[in-house]
Amino acid sequence: MTNHYFSEKPSVESNRSTFVFDLRGSTLKFTSDAGVFSKREVDFGSRLLLDAFTFPEVKGDILDMGCGYGPIGLALAKENKALTVYMADINERAVELTKENATDNKITNIKVIQSNLFEAIEKDNFAAILTNPPIRAGKSTVHQIFEQAYSKLVSGGQLWVVIQKKQGAPSAIEKLKILYTNVEVVQKKKGYFIIQAEKN
């Protein structure tokens, strides 16, 4: 597991790559690296999640859980400067890349935290939490994100998840229905599901 992106200190040798993507109306430059999820481009699931996401009506900041090198959180922070976007990942290399990418794109309304899931997230009044969860870390880890996110959302807050059907979307939906009041599949494309779960 040491070379997997869901590890605190990736041991794989650094091999950085830089690329440009248009996300939610902004052109953003990203640097990624070996040992971090989606090294060479903004992955399809993250792009689909960003395309589907709508800012909730309730007040509160946003959390990108498992932010990787930062495409989801940085795109939302760039779009909505009135909010602070919190970005968290267990992977120290990912956290440093997120900070670097924020600087390169002149995005300042963010807080980047190294955290094993929600362990270091003290704030508990988010309007929305988005996650492209670490599937390879296992179903129990993914479901733990769903469970812990609930307590970190305001009433009316939303958890947004992207997950492939073949990687457990049906069981994810069933788990979310146990925890959340309203669970909706917002979009399906190429085997990917975008799921929105709202806290009562």
Description:
The protein has about 200 residues and is of the alpha/beta class. It is built from five helices and nine strands; from the N terminus they run E-E-H-E-H-E-H-E-E-H-E-H-E-E. The strands form two sheets. A seven-stranded mixed sheet has the order 5-4-3-6-7-9-8, with helices on both faces. The protein has a two-stranded antiparallel sheet with strand order 1-2. Strand 8 and strand 9 (about 190-200) form a beta hairpin. Helix 1 (about 45-50) runs parallel beside helix 2 (about 70-80) and helix 4 (about 140-150) packs parallel to helix 5 (about 170-180). It starts with 16 loop residues before the first strand and ends with a strand. The mean pLDDT is about 95.
Shape: globular
Largest sheet: spatial strand order = 5-4-3-6-7-9-8
- Which oligomeric form is depicted? single chain
Number of strands: 9
Strand content: 25-35%
What composes the largest sheet?
Answer: 7 strands, mixed
Q: Helix segment count?
A: 5
Cα gyration radius (Å): 15 Å
- Percentage of residues in helical conformation: 25-40%
Order of helices and strands: EEHEHEHEEHEHEE
Poorly predicted spans:
none
Summed over residues and divided by their number, the pLDDT gives a mean of: 94
